[in-house]
Amino acid sequence: MPGPVHRFFFRLLDLVSYARYRFLPSGPFRRKGLPSLPSRPDLLLVTVAFNRADMIDRQLEMVRQQVKEENCCHLVVDNSPDPHKRKAIREVCRRHGAAYAAVPPGVFPFLARRFTLCSMSHAFALNWAYYRIIRRVRPKFFALLDHDIFPISPCRMADLPDFLDIYGVRRTRGNGSLWYLWPGWTIFRFSAVDPLHPDFCPTFQGKVYLDTGGGNYRRICRRIDPSRVRFAPDRFFRLSDDESISQEDLYYGWCVEGVDRAWLHLINGSDYKGLGTKEEMLQYCMEHLPIFRGLLRK
Question: If residue 271 lies in a helix (H) or strand (E), which one and from where to where?
Answer without folding.
Answer: none
